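<tokenise_the_fold>
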Amino acid sequence: MSSLASLSITKGSKIKKFNKGRGRGSGNGKTCGKGTKGQGAHAHTKANGFEGGQTPLYRRLPKFGGYRKSHKNREIVYAILNVEKLNVFEEGSTVNAAALIEKGLVKKELDGVKILGKGTLSKKLHVIASAYSASAKKAIEEKGGVAEVTK
């Protein structure tokens, strides 16, 4: 068993700090590796972000600030679909966002689906959507269908 007094430092674990400017023979004497004269040789250094006269990155990029829009203040974005496109469904079927995505009529639901009144509807359907235009709702109900609004 060894004692604390017999412990020694592992070779290479402690490296002596290199003193610059301590004679030319050291290879880092006189100018300490900074060259001669000029901005880089003197005591001060360039300001953070300084790019030699070029407009620095922090001034080239846009600034973002202010407040974040809350969910309540955000604009609602609907996936939009016209009534004429609903003719691909069978008579009496239920049409909702999942069914529209499955048929490829809508890519994704976004904040919901809004049905607009362009074209004519030839079938009785139970349509479930987030919003309807007045003409779309009228067209669905004229055929005996139901225009149900979801949240």
In short: The domain at 79-149 is CATH 3.100.10.10 (Ribosomal Protein L15; Chain: K; domain 2).
